[in-house]
Every structure is written in C-alpha cells, then in structure tokens.
C-alpha cells in the first residue's frame, strides 16, 4: 500500500469510526480484584491497519498523529461507558502529541464529562518507548492533565529514553515495569535487582508499581515475593472486546514471607463496638454518640454485613450549623455513612493489614479497620493499636536476630518450624554450611570472614526469595532456609539450592587474593596443628523434608537437617544432598538385664 493509499485508509477509519478498543485487565492480586483496564486500539480484522504499530506508523508519516490519538481516546471512552465498566481506564498516549500546538487541548476532559466519567477514573499512560524530544513542554502538558483531575502513569519503564527522569520530576500515580524485566524474572538476579530498586523508589514517592507482560505462574510467584501486587499480562487475560472482571483464585497473592517468625493476626487487636443498621435514622446515630462520649465510630450493617461506617467527627459536622439538624435528622444512616470502609478478615496477618493501610490513600492513624468473620461483623481494630502491636513484635524479633546479618536467629527459626509441625504443614529445610571456613578466617582475618558471611546471607535472600518462606542465620557460617510445599515443589527446591551453589562457586573468588586463586586454595594449620592445603571455600547443602507426624519438635528437625548437612560435606566441594529420611534416627536404650 502506497503512502497516499495508507493516508486515505487511515482517514477513512477515523471518519467512519471503525477503530475499536480491546481491554486488558490490571489486577490487584492482594485484594483479588480488577482495578481497571488498559485500552488497546485495533482496526477492522484483516485490514492493513488492523494493529497499532502500523496504525501509528502511518499516522506519524502522514502527520495525522493528533487525529488518530483523539479517535482512539474517543473509541475507548465511549466503549468503556457503553459497557458500564468500573475502575480505572488506562489510555495510552504518545507523549509527542501532548506538546503539539495543533492538538486540541481539553478534548479528553470534555468527552469524559459528556459520557459521565470522572476524570479520576482515567489514567493517562505516557510510554517510554517513544523518543521524547521536548521534555519541558511534555512536563507542562502532564501537569495540565493532572490539574484537570486525570491520573498519570509512565508505561514501559526501563524500555529507554526518559522514564526515570520524568518519574523523579512528576511523581506519577503509576509506573509500569516493562515486560523485558518481567519475562523469566525468577531466573535472573539482575532483573530482580532492577524491580526491587523500582519498588524502593516507588515507596518513597508514593507511586504504585504495575508489572506488565506476566505470562507464567513462576514469574508471578517471583513478583509476589518481591512485593508486587498490581499485575497485568496474558496470565490474567488477553486484550478482548469483553473485559475481564474477576481474578482466578489460583493467581492471588498467597506468598506469606515469615520474616519475623511470628504469626499474629488482626484478631489480636480487635475491640467490639456497638453497631447500627443502615435503615436507622441519622438522628439515632447522633443519640448514640451523645450518650457515649468515648464512642468515635459506628459500624453500619445490613443483614449482619458491614456496608459502611459513621465517624463521630463527620456526623457532628453534618448536624452543626443553623440547618444541620433539620436537613439530616430524618435521613437514613445509609444516606450519610461513609461507604467501602477498610475491612479485613479476622485471620488476616498483622503484616498484611499493615501493608494494606500503608497503601490506602486516605488512611490516618486515628482511623479504624472493620474486622469480619465469615463475611459478618466481628469487631473493630484501631490503626494505632495495630501499629503498636507490630512495633512490639518487631522489637522482640530484633532482639533475637543475628547481629551480623540481621537475619532471624535460632529463636525465630525454631518457632517457625514448630508452627509448621503443629499445623501439619508439608515443608523442607535446607541447611547451608561453608567448607574450610575456619582456615579462611585464620589466613584472611575475622573482618574479612564477616564480609563472606554477609555476602552468603545476601546470596541466599536474592536467589531464594521467590520460592522460600524463610531465611535464617543459625550463627557463624551456618544458615537455614525453610521452604513451604504450598508455594514450591520438591524439584524446584533442589534446583534453587543448585543455583545457590553455582553462584557461590562463581563469585567466591572475589574474596581471595590473586595468588590463592591461581593455587586453587590456601595453606593453613588444621585442627590438629599440622600445615595443610585447603581448597577455596565451598558450600555444602543438606535438604530434608520432615514428616510432621514423626517429628515432635524443632529438635528432631535440627537432628535430621544436621545429618543431611554432614552427608553433603562428605562429597567435598560444593554439593547438595537431599536426604529422603523424614525423621531422625532414634537412640535405642538397651536394658542392662538383656
């Protein structure tokens, strides 16, 4: 098709409104809900301009970029409204259109208002894939969109050009990590480092991170382990005319890192408050607050389910003034309550609830959390009491953490193992121990030895984050990793341990002088006082899968793991030994009369 023909074909598609959107879900895997959809434009099936790459290439060549952009937004907004879709609508925008003087400003706002859509529902996605020629004008355009009430996202972060610079200057509401860094992230420490850095930056400037291009459960598990909860990709739904509204239960974030080794739930800080039905008059709520000066909140229920809350402060504000009483006294509670309060199940962990309120846009320390049980009202927990409880637990855990690596020590390790035994959970324990560490210390000194220990701790955390629930430091050069079989298979456990060995053997040379690397080891005095040659440091791994019915406590598991570790050390060099015995050997007491 010639350039002239392509131009006419594009003009025809725009004028005849033949462009249509496909919608791909953006999901919150922690809450188990679809938070919005990205609109991806298409031309008629089998048309030369069916796909966006060709559409926008022709538009750019023919100086029709502004017209195409407006047509795409119109089609997306109109279909979003026609289907009665809820949540956010993510609209892709070529950043260079925003600085085009001929581009009609305010058209997106006018169109959204005509369709009855709140600008806050619309997220303008600025893609980093386009070379941005004038960043100053672009910043002005983005600031203008934000002032109109639209939200802002940087798409394809990491794909090139100026995304990080824009991010640092504009503080967008969302950043989308380019699919390159998501693909096979469970197999790449570099990609994990990149995503972890993005998450740290996002936390500091209160930007939400969306990982896009997720196609496998292994990628999803790794992202969950890193702390990603907003996700997009074929695993959740391909672009389609009919939007996805539900998240498959198997894709929800069930990863529960036991960093502190405690298992407290929100039920531990719940108080019981009186409730009020949503069909009661507002005056009844006012009377409740008047009679009880200590009451700051009333949960509102309908058929025993919480549907909202009424706070003392906001209700008194309603009834204040010359006409406040007359205007509100006869209204039903349902008409004045705050809808969609923060609500969690009574078995939710304190860590999960803490993360939820931290990410909630309008949470403050004086608010409360509604706690439910079997979807019915259970009680109320103040955020202040929740944070106080978490602080107490973390201080207690810090007392028992290893001072060198800050990893949980023996107290926390034993507690986690005992919990799994008590709950009859299937799990595995990997015991990591360095070979020839004492002679290394003798030659290089304890300060250098401490650097090796800290490096091993980081290696275990980075390599095993995606599949382990717990990394602990017994002491010295001994580490324990506890794997939960609900999150990882036995085969993957062995593969993960093998990756640790490979990375250890590859990078341990950084802690040696050149002469020792050439020799392949060091000469030092052995335990008997004789000069001996010791090869370079290596790592022995003993893996066991205890049977909760045969092991009575962490003592039995420790014996079993120690036996496996000893077997691994017998092979010499770095080696992973998987012991298939599920309980330690018992000492048989022989009678003196036998």
What tags apply to this protein structure?
594 residues, alpha/beta, TIM Barrel, CBS-domain, Alpha-Beta Plaits, 3 domains, eight-stranded mixed β-barrel, five-stranded mixed beta sheet, 22 helices, globular, EAL_sf, CBS domain, Rev_trsase/Diguanyl_cyclase, EAL_dom, GGDEF domain-containing protein
Describe this entry's structure for a reader.
Pfam families: CBS, EAL, GGDEF. It comes from Idiomarina piscisalsi. This protein has 22 helices and 22 strands. The protein has 594 residues and is of the alpha/beta class. It has 3 domains: 21-40 and 87-251, EAL domain (TIM Barrel, Alpha-Beta Barrel), CATH 3.20.20; 266-389, CBS-domain, CATH 3.10.580.10; 401-578, Alpha-Beta Plaits (2-Layer Sandwich). Strands 1-2-3-4-5-6-7-8 form an 8-stranded mixed barrel, surrounded by 4 helices. Strands 17-18-16-21-22 form a 5-stranded mixed sheet, with helices on both faces. A 4-stranded mixed sheet has the order 9-10-11-12. Helix 1 crosses helix 2 (52-61). It is globular and about 90 Å long.
3D shape: globular
Assembly type: single chain
By CATH, the superfamily of the largest domain comes out as EAL domain
The name of the CATH architecture of the largest domain is Alpha-Beta Barrel
Domain GGDEF: 425-581
Domain CBS: 269-327, 337-398
Keywords: CBS domain
Pfam family, one: EAL
């Amino acid at each position: 098709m010639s350039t002239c023909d392509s131009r006419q074909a594009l003009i025809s598609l725009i004028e005849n409104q033949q462009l249509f959107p496909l919608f791909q879900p953006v999901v919150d895997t922690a809450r188990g809900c679809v938070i919005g959809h990205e609109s991806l434009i298409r031309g008629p099936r089998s048309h030369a301009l069916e796909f966006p790459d060709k559409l926008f290439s022709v538009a750019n060549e023919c100086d029709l970029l502004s017209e195409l952009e407006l047509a795409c937004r119109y089609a997306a907004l109109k279909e979003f409204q026609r289907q009665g879709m809820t949540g956010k609508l993510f609209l892709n925008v070529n950043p260079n259109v925003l600085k085009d003087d001929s581009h009609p400003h305010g058209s997106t706002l006018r169109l959204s208002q005509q369709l009855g859509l709140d600008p806050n529902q619309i997220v303008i996605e600025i893609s980093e894939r386009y070379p941005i020629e004038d960043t100053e004008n672009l910043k002005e355009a983005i600031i203008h969109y934000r002032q109109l009430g639209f939200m802002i996202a940087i798409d394809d972060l990491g794909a090139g050009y100026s995304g990080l610079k824009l991010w640092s200057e504009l503080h967008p509401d969302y950043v989308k990590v380019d699919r390159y860094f998501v693909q096979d992230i469970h197999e790449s420490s570099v990609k994990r480092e990149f995503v972890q850095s993005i998450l740290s930056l996002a936390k500091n400037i209160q930007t939400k991170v969306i990982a896009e291009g997720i196609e496998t459960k292994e990628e999803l598990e790794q992202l969950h382990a890193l702390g990603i909860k907003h996700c997009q990709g074929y695993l959740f739904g391909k672009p389609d005319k009919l939007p996805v509204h539900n998240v498959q239960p198997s894709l929800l974030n069930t990863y529960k890192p036991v960093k502190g080794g405690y298992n407290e739930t929100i039920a531990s800080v719940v108080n019981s408050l009186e409730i009020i039905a949503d069909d009661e008059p507002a005056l009844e709520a006012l009377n409740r607050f008047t009679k009880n000066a200590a009451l700051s909140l009333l949960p509102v229920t309908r058929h025993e389910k919480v549907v909202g809350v009424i706070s003392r402060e906001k209700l008194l504000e309603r009834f204040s003034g010359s006409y406040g009483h007359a205007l509100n006294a006869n209204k039903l509670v349902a008409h004045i309550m705050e809808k969609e309060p923060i609500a969690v199940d009574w078995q939710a962990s304190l860590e999960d609830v803490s993360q939820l309120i931290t990410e909630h846009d309008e949470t403050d320390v004086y608010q409360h959390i509604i706690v439910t049980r079997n979807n019915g009202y259970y009680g109320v927990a103040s955020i202040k009491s929740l944070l106080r409880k978490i602080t107490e637990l973390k201080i207690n855990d810090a007392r028992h953490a290893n001072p060198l690596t800050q990893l949980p020590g023996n107290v926390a390790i034993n507690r986690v193992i005992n919990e799994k035994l008590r709950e009859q959970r299937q799990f595995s324990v990997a015991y990591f121990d360095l070979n020839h560490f004492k002679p290394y210390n003798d030659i290089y000194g304890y300060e250098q030895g401490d650097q090796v220990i800290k490096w091993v701790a980081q290696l275990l955390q980075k390599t095993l984050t995606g599949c382990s629930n717990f990394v602990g430091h017994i002491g010295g050069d001994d580490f324990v990793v506890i794997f939960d079989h609900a999150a990882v298979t036995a085969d993957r456990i062995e593969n993960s341990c093998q990756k640790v060995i490979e990375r250890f053997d590859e990078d341990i040379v950084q802690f040696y002088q050149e002469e020792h690397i050439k020799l392949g080891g060091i000469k030092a005095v052995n335990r008997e006082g004789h000069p001996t040659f010791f090869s370079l440091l290596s790592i022995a791994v003993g893996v066991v899968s205890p049977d909760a019915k045969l092991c009575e406590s962490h003592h039995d598991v420790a014996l079993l793991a120690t036996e496996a570790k000893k077997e691994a050390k017998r092979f010499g060099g770095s080696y992973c030994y998987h012991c298939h015995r599920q309980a330690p050997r018992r000492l048989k007491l022989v009678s003196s009369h036998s």
